[in-house]
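Appendix B, record 7
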Amino acid sequence: MAIIKSNTVNIKLAVNKLQDGELVAFPTETVYGLGADGLNEIAVSKIFEAKQRPSFNPLILHVSSLEMLSDVASFTSDKIRLLTDKFWPGPLTLVLKKKDVVPYIVTSGLDTVAVRMPANNVALDLIEYFGKPVAAPSANSFSQLSPTEAEHVEKQLGDKVDIILDGGRCKVGVESTIIEVAENSQVLLRPGGITRKEIEELIGPLSDPAITEQSPNSPGQLKIHYAPNIPINFYDESELTNYKNLKLGGIFFSEVKNHKKFEITKLLSPKREMHEAASNLFSHLHDLEQLDLDMILVERVPKKDLGIAIMDRLTKAVNKYL
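Structure tokens (predicted):
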């Protein structure tokens, strides 16, 4: 395993690894992805093995063009073109009817496939040079913190991945929004980098999923996910006495509270700007889990627009330790 710069020569080295059926990690605008040939069953199986990811949890195929989308998915709704015209490349994943070329290991046996076009030149060049869709969940161990820097991938996966393309820190910092658009329904499956409001302004109201944890039809639907290796809970001033003998790390939205109670504190966004908060979320959690702390307390952010995606990630992290 090696972290290498994301130049043309090294991207083509990564393409060679994909062609050989191996794994590569690469940056996107959301988080780093763990990529394999999305049409090669054996290569895709290595993703599940490296991440220790349950086989019932589907993957996302990453494409570099609308033509590549048409190769792997079929659809008739005009709303799909509206969505791709406005939000692609970008942090929006579409769940569509899969074509036969897509192996069922990618979709966890479902007849639908999740697809997106990342807004990152390294990712797009990698896919374009490869010439086929790249299957890529986040490049982390299952249920642990998503990686927003190349070093986060190295820390969690080590020699389980052949090449890590270093493209710097991810700009969005939380995973893509996932929606399913069918003939008579449109469902928000996971909040993410594109807000519900933005999508609904374009195609109308989205409904919420009627999906169980045991049968998810896209990533991000499990109740426990995105968690650090040390306990995490939401900050509540009235409960601070419960932690009086613990070494605490704190993550606050825009200003530190009760700073004397904490060994270290970090701010998501001093300007109270949600995009900055999302970009900092996983990076701050990665930093704190490296320290000698007993507990991380994190302040809730306003549950509006991108704050919904931030709270989704934090709630699933907290759920691990309830």
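Remarks on this record: The chain has two domains: 2-203, 232-319. The longest strand covers residues 92-98.
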